[in-house]
Amino acid sequence: MNIMFRKLKKIALVAMASLAVIPVAGQDLLANQAPIDRKMKAVDSLMMQQLLTNEVWESPAANLYNDWNNQYAHQQTALPDSFLINLRDFCMPTTNRMVTSNFGARWGRQHKGLDVKVYIGDTIRAAFSGKVRIVRFERKGYGNYVVLRHPNGLETIYAHMSKHLVNENQEVRAGDPVGLGGNTGRSTGSHLHFETRLCGVALNPALMFDFKNQDVVGDEWMFRRSTYNKESAQATRLRGAGGVYRGGDGLDYAEVPGADKQQAASNVRYHKVKKGETLSAIARKHHTTVNALCSLNRIKKTVKLRPGQILKYN
């Protein structure tokens, strides 16, 4: 019995010694390898960062623009027949979802972007990574505005802001604050006027951005001259203010489903209320009636008109 116990004890001691040696050897190997791993990890991280930086800042659309300047908000260059725009890694310019005015014909002139309801002081963010080209104030137009140029070929414009938060030639990432919501320039209420331009040509932002759902339409969007107008009209119906297409981008109404209704919508006329004006005075001016004005604008006869308020009159 004692002999058996001594044998078992010897086997146990040998086994314990073997187990003790293996971790030490393993630890020695790990200790020797650790500095190498740290160096390789540092090299890999630097290389990865450099690759990411190159991917972001080396624009695949570099040949779209003739130059870089801080003078013109938009200057048209040769527009390609087609161009694939990468919409990945985006940020919605505002978390507000209400589109208040569509791209296209408005009040006898072209509205080159979408108006989105924001309040004074709301943060306005860069839609994509890029570089700040213009930071300026325009009293009779954009008010406080910023123009960004992006590697995907687009330029985005953020207008009527109360304050700039970036400087010209500054590099920004998607989501970086570029300004604060406001009511500066040619504006009748606090909102963000948001434009998307390709080679200086204004494109309907609703083709790419869905403010109601706080998303883009996909990972990419293909601009094609041949189908742009149809797509613009469809985008407005899907993602615009009330889905009303008002024309203004060269589309033949016969090509649009529901053309008669859309044509009627495009013929609506507007009146901007001046200080002291009444419904009866506006009705007389435009050869209509107070009842017709109230019905068209869904207001009561007792409504108190505000200077700058917009009313339909036919």
Task: Describe what you observe in this structure.
- By secondary structure, the protein is α+β, with helices and mostly antiparallel strands.
- It is built from five helices and 19 strands.
- It has helices spanning 2-57, 228-239, 259-266, 279-285, 290-297, and strands at 82-86, 99-101, 104-106, 109-111, 114-117, 123-125, 130-138, 143-149, 154-161, 163-164, 171-172, 177-180, 191-198, 201-203, 209-210, 215-216, 220-224, 270-272, 310-312.
- The strands form six sheets. Strands 2, 5, 7, 8, 9, 11, 13 and 14 form an eight-stranded antiparallel β-sheet that branches.
- A hairpin with a 2-residue loop joins strand 13 and strand 14 (201-203).
- The chain is elongated, with a radius of gyration of 31 Å.
- The model is unreliable at 246-266 (pLDDT under 50).
The total count of strands amounts to 19
Q: Report mean pLDDT, rounded to a whole number.
A: 80
What's the Cα radius of gyration? 31 Å
Strand content: 25-35%
**Helix and strand string, N-terminal first?**
HEEEEEEEEEEEEEEEEEHHEHHE
Number of helices: 5
Low-pLDDT stretches are: 246-266
**Helix share of residues?**
25-40%
Q: So what's the overall shape?
A: elongated
